[in-house]
Write a structure and sequence with these properties.
The chain has about 325 residues and is an alpha+beta fold. The protein folds into three domains: about 15-105, no CATH class; about 125-175, no CATH class; about 180-295, Enolase-like, domain 1 (2-Layer Sandwich). It is built from eleven helices and 14 strands. The chain has helices spanning about 25-35, 40-50, 60-70, 155-170, 195-200, 220, 250-260, 265-270, 280-295, 300-310, 320, and strands spanning about 15-20, 20-25, 55, 75, 80-85, 90-95, 100-105, 120-125, 125, 180-185, 190-195, 210-215, 230-235, 240-245. The strands form four sheets. Strands 10-11-14-13-12 form a five-stranded antiparallel β-sheet, covered by helices on one side. Strands 3-2-1-7 form a four-stranded mixed β-sheet. It has a three-stranded antiparallel β-sheet with strand order 4-5-6. Strand 1 and strand 2 form a beta hairpin.
Length: about 325
């Protein structure tokens, strides 16, 4: 295959990629647009579009699209595939590529479980549960994608541990997704934890935003990665409440923030911690340090230092210093 970037679209109903040709409905760009940072989603969209031609499924004749998804419109050429489509005007369009990929999304697989026979409530998104992951039958629990919540493997693992605590050890625990991390494996990669700028202000929080660019990270420059940035969101008390990252290894970089936010680690601890050089991970330390820099080099501190050194006198005799 010869495509540069292929975006991960989550639960997109249908997307078909033909080498450097991609068919996707509005759902593709809606998924990208729901990313926490508007400017980040625009940069990802631009990067994905580089070398890839997107054709909206709205511009494909509905009957032709059905034949495509059923495989009737696909011809095996031996070393490639050919897809024959018709646009709304009836014109035939033929496209060739090495490989054909089709993504059809996910739905809960509960139809053969007999849940309706015992009255367990569910809807099209999954089994209905409370904040302890109990169904309407309190001795029956549901975790993971089947409950229609956060469709992440790490969320399912968290929920599984919650059920063990509640059902096996009878230690009542409620789910808390405040600091649930997520990643979108596009190129450039995105990750997020906690609140973003928009959700924080919608919640009435007078937040401040601190940004550090990957183009200022030495390891990132050495590897030719210049796109992206990290955003740190602080509340009125200047405590971190969220982080969004777009750039190389964004998901891996988020791990440090998972520990910081869940462990309520002070920002000063992160800024003072020694990070190995040169690594991409230094960007976490640097964005924390950017918050303290204005305080350290403020006029008040500078006046204090001048006063202090004036009292202490010169570091050497006047004649020696003049030499």
């Amino acid at each position: 295959m010869n495509f540069k970037q292929l975006g991960h679209t989550g639960t997109l109903v249908s997307e078909l990629c033909l080498g450097t040709m991609t068919f996707g409905g509005k759902g593709f760009w809606e998924a990208i647009g729901r990313m926490p940072q508007k400017e980040a989603s625009e940069m990802v969209k631009k990067a994905i579009e580089n070398g890839i031609n997107f054709i909206d499924t709205a511009n494909i004749y509905s009957e032709g699209l059905s034949e495509l998804l059923l495989g009737k419109a696909v011809k095996d050429l031996g070393r490639g595939k050919e897809v024959t489509l018709k646009d709304p005007d009836g014109r035939t369009v033929r496209l060739k590529a090495e490989t054909l990929l089709v993504a059809v999304g996910r739905t809960p697989n509960t139809s053969a479980m007999g849940l309706e026979d015992i009255g367990v409530k569910s809807d099209r998104t999954g089994i209905t549960v409370d904040n302890r992951l109990r169904t309407n039958h309190k001795h029956i629990y549901a975790a993971g994608d089947v409950s229609g919540g956060f469709l992440f493997t790490h969320a399912a693992g968290y929920e599984g541990g919650m059920i063990v605590s509640n059902a096996i050890f009878h230690l009542p625990r409620k789910t808390d997704y405040t600091y649930l991390p997520w990643c979108t494996y596009t190129d450039p990669e995105l990750s997020s934890i906690g609140m973003n700028e928009k959700t924080a202000r919608a919640a009435g929080i007078d937040c401040s935003v601190w940004v550090e660019a990957f183009k200022d990270n030495d390891r990132s420059l050495a590897e030719g990665e210049r796109i992206g940035r990290i955003k740190m969101i602080l509340d009125e008390k200047e405590k971190p409440i969220g982080v969004q990252i777009m750039g190389p290894h964004a998901g891996d970089l988020l791990g440090e923030w998972v520990a910081i936010l869940n462990g309520k680690v002070k920002l000063s601890t992160l800024a003072a911690a020694i990070h190995p050089y040169p690594t991409i991970g230094e960007i976490n330390k640097k964005v924390a340090g950017s918050y303290f820099s204005p305080k350290i080099f403020s006029e008040k501190v500078q006046r204090g230092l001048k006063f202090f050194f004036h009292l202490k006198g010169r570091a050497c005799a006047e004649d020696a210093c003049s030499e």
